[in-house]
Design brief:
Strand order of the largest sheet: 1-2
Number of helices: 13
Order of helices and strands: HHHHHHHEHHHHHHE
Largest sheet: 2 strands, parallel
Helix content: 55-70%
Radius of gyration: 19 Å
Shape: globular
Strand content: under 5%
Distance between the termini: 49 Å
């Protein structure tokens, strides 16, 4: 585990799968320390997560992933689990994408982890300044906003996802089923139900036309303070031309 911590962060943008895979590996190295120090507490939390999530994801691909983790948690020894969650391979990445090891770090520890690792890649992907009165600028603000939401997703996924689901339930009451607005919201319902946290982070920070389309109907609102939103705007203004 020590050698992996010593590796410098990859020089890739935060919206790439390579960067997310690296951050996820660093996170699980932290979990591995706690698993070795206090295995009963960590395993109980992971098993509880699997039991709580299983009904929500019944009938989806994620259900198969959760069942796989249920078997691993109940059949593997602590050293074997440590090896599994810290394996730097395609198989290790696959398993970490549906990890049940969430809610184990304290809020302070999650914030420190994010500052130490994830924020090293939080740089804009905009190649050149954009006009401040353009759609490009609005898209840039939305992308930078969702990078901040990505940080919250890494730190407290249950709270962020539940807030998004609450927003969708409330908004769908205002639109008739079959309308374009309702379709966009239903698409987000499917995304939140189907994808893991690392996959959600990749989706909401993807710098592409598809990423912009999804961000235009995002349910991930109400999560930042007014001052935090103003700071994003100020940061984007520095990347714009007037």
């Amino acid at each position: 585990m020590t050698s992996a911590f010593a590796q410098p962060p990859p020089s890739v943008p935060v919206d790439s799968h390579q960067f997310l895979d690296w951050v996820n590996l660093m996170y699980h190295l932290e979990i591995a320390k706690r698993l070795l120090a206090n295995p009963e507490s960590v395993l109980n939390r992971a098993r509880s997560n699997v039991e709580r999530w299983a009904p929500v994801h019944a009938g989806t691909f994620s259900a198969h992933a959760l069942e796989e983790w249920r078997i691993l948690l109940n059949t593997k020894s602590v050293p074997e689990l440590v090896a599994i969650i810290t394996e730097d391979s395609d198989e290790g990445q696959r398993l970490r994408q549906s990890t049940p090891f969430t809610g184990i770090l304290s809020e302070k520890e999650r914030e420190e982890f994010w500052r130490r690792y994830a924020l090293q890649g939080m740089t804009t992907t905009s190649a050149k300044p954009v006009p401040i009165d353009s759609q490009q600028f609005i898209d840039l603000v939305a992308l930078e906003y969702h990078k901040e939401i990505a940080a919250l997703l890494m730190m407290d996924p249950d709270r962020v996802i539940e807030e998004a689901r609450d927003n969708l339930r409330r908004w769908l009451l205002a639109y008739e089923r079959g309308t374009r607005e309702a379709w966009c919201l239903e698409e987000w319902e499917q995304i939140l139900d189907r994808y893991t946290v690392p996959e959600l982070i990749a989706i909401i920070t993807e710098d592409s036309d598809e990423g912009q389309r999804l961000r235009s109907s995002t349910p991930l609102v109400g999560l930042l303070s007014p001052e935090e939103r103003k700071e994003i705007w100020r940061r984007c203004e520095k990347m714009a031309v007037f």
